[in-house]
Amino acid sequence: MTDMSYAPTRTQSPTTKLVLRFVLYILLALFALFYLMPLFVMITTSLKSLDEIRTGDLVSLPREVTFDAWRTAWSSACTGIQCEGVRPYFLNSLLIAIPAVLISTIIGALNGYVVAQWKFKGANIFFALLLFGCFIPFQVVLLPMAIVLGKLGISGTIPGLIFVHVIYGLGFTTLFFRNYYVSIPSELTKAAMIDGAGFFRIFWSIFMPLSLPIIVVSVIWQFTQIWNDFLFGVSFSQAGTQPVTVALNNIVNSTTGVKEYNVDMAAAIIAALPTLLVYVVAGKYFIRGLTAGSVKG
Amino acid sequence: MARWLQDNMPKIVLAPSFIAVMVFVYGFIGWTAWVSLTRSRLMPRYQIDSFIQYGRLADSPRFETAMENLAIFGTLFIVIAMVLGLLLAILLDQKIRTEGAIRTIYLYPMALSMIVTGTAWKWILNPELGIEATVKGWGFANFEFKWLVDPDMAIYTVVLAAVWQSSGFVMALFLAGLRSVDEEIIKAAQVDGIPTWRVYSAIIIPSMAPIFLSAFIVLAHLAIKAFDLVIALTGGGPGYATDLPATYMYAMAFSRGDIGQAASSAMVMMLVVFTIVVPYLYSELRTKDD
């Protein structure tokens, strides 16, 4: 729509146009390099031996490709006194993320369904309160949450972290579903009620079949948030229940022994792989989640 | 009974979430606000004792640095990410054949954890083996680049990494905005011979004001919450040169055992968010009701 061919020819000769296009592509390529460079450096560094790293060239390809750093990062790198690599923590992250994503998405779907289709006095106030909860800096709830988790007997456990992620994920999941269901005409619900269908029946047979796209958005958003979380992970876990982001940070900042930059990089890539994979496979939905979270409907 | 259940089902379904929000969001904010007015140290105490903790914050050079850093980091991060995001969106809006691929490349950092981003940049900016060694290796023997360990410059490495991570997202927001501008107006302007840059500066960009606002809110929010990135990239150092209110709060809560300071610094963060987000949410919700 901003095609230059709309512009009158007297302002741009074919040569200037060609030069402009050329400059444009050069600029785009330079920016692409800027965004790709850290990933490139991470991958190449992880495939080099420590000796090669010490001779110091960030951007050169490895002279000799070795997967030793990957093996170490996965199964024997030290996160403090323990030296089991990121594997157990990777597993922890899965054990936290999968239930938390499912539970918060299901509750969010039901909440969104009520707020959008079963309007009653106070439903909008609830939604506003919930929405504001998305914006609070979590530092403001860290201390009381630590106490409550202790009282519930789940502090430092994986169920405790699942609980925290479900609670503070509800705002966004409700928002996604509410905005999606609000565009479905309420006559549909009314007609179904006249036909004798109840609350859950309408949800299950009418709304669920329409909801696949928004379920995908919600699942991807929640998974990315929870997998990448560090603040809750570092505050509410203990040795053995830490998620992979906390383990990665511990590996990188562990002060014992020789600094193994290649292991750090391999561990970082491992920690990034699940969300990167989700992004590559379902980027469209990832972006929809991002924009839905910022441009409120 | 069944009838009552049927009628009240929506409320029953909403009730647990409502209680959860009232307790775990608003109740907890209230708790933190209360404790920020006490002399709590290692354990929370509930005896209110004026604004002593806020006085301690005001006297703390470390917290002063943290607030200064938030101002520097927040301003630079928001401005650079917005300008870069807008520039990238405009460049990509010129009927680029490989747009999909380029967009994917610009946006992928947003899928990464801040800890991964921090780890990667920490290595790239490593004063001995990172960029410095690489450029030296190219024959510039006197090249120096030690921002990461320079107390005056380290905060700018946080800006760099944060911009790298988030500018692609701003681009995606702006690109969607550019695409939603009425094409007829643009065509009419171009038929009138108005140059492309004027079309952008006078027609397209002004019509995207709501998107600027959204981008600003999201970036401001990211800036105030930035915690993991600082932890992974600089650890708040050298010394506490790159401390932010978020890292200050965490240090007070979990390593210094100073709950009063943790609570009051959290409330300061809360206030900063409040002043930015409340007017925005208020206007958003109001326009919805109209």
Description:
The complex is a heterodimer of chains A (297) and B (290). Chain A has 297 residues and is an all-alpha fold. Chain A folds into 2 domains: 63 residues, no CATH class; 208 residues, MetI-like (MetI-like fold). Helix content of chain A is 71%, strand content 0%. Chain B is 72% helix and 0% strand. In chain B, helix 2 packs across helix 13. Classes of the chains: A mainly alpha (297), B mainly alpha (290). Chains A and B meet through helix 1, helix 4, helix 5, helix 6 and helix 7 of A and helix 1, helix 3, helix 4, helix 5 and helix 6 of B.
List keywords for this structure.
heterodimer, A: 297 residues, mainly alpha, MetI-like fold, 13 helices, 0% strand, flat, disordered N terminus, B: 290 residues
Shape of chain B: flat
Mean pLDDT of chain B: 88
Q: Radius of gyration of chain A, Cα only, in angstroms? A: 25 Å
Q: Low-confidence spans of chain B: pLDDT under 50, at least 5 residues?
A: none
CATH architecture call of chain B: Orthogonal Bundle
Which CATH class of the largest domain in chain A? Mainly Alpha
Number of strands of chain B: 0
Gross morphology of chain A is: flat
Mean pLDDT across residues of chain A? 87
Taking the alpha carbons of the first and last residues of chain A, their distance comes to: 26 Å
Number of strands of chain A: 0
**How do the helices and strands follow one another from N- to C-terminus of chain B?**
HHHHHHHHHHHHH
| CATH class division of chain B | Mainly Alpha
Determine the strand fraction of chain B and express it as a percent band.
Answer: under 5%
The CATH homologous superfamily of chain B is called: MetI-like
